[in-house]
Amino acid sequence: MKTRKKKVANGPTTHGISRVIEDILGCKWTVVVLRNIAGGTNRPGALTRRIPGLSAKVLNQRLRKLGRYNIIRRKIFNELPPRVEYSLTPLGRKIAKVLSQLEGIERDLGVKY
Description:
The termini are far apart. The chain has helices at 17-25, 28-38, 44-50, 56-68, 90-109, and strands at residues 72-77, 83-88. The protein has five helices and two strands. It has 113 residues and is mainly α. Helix 2 packs across helix 5 (90-109). The chain has a single domain, classed as Arc Repressor Mutant, subunit A (Orthogonal Bundle).
């Protein structure tokens, strides 16, 4: 008996926009990581120190997923010790702008967590 393999999505072209948003923002850390990269914190160690409770493992998962969707860009420097920096792509800047607008609406509504 043959078994069917489940197809795994590699990027935004395989799903509708709502599925992509759900996949990207499905983790509570994604928005925080994006906000920090947009704010200029672009090295993994600095992100881990700046975001309380975020483990290196979860950070790496989020960074890989954001990179797969072309939201962030990874730059590796040929140095010893190795240095890696992340920055927003044009798409990432658009998403950061939308998230910023949503945070403004949240403030207008007086939502507190």
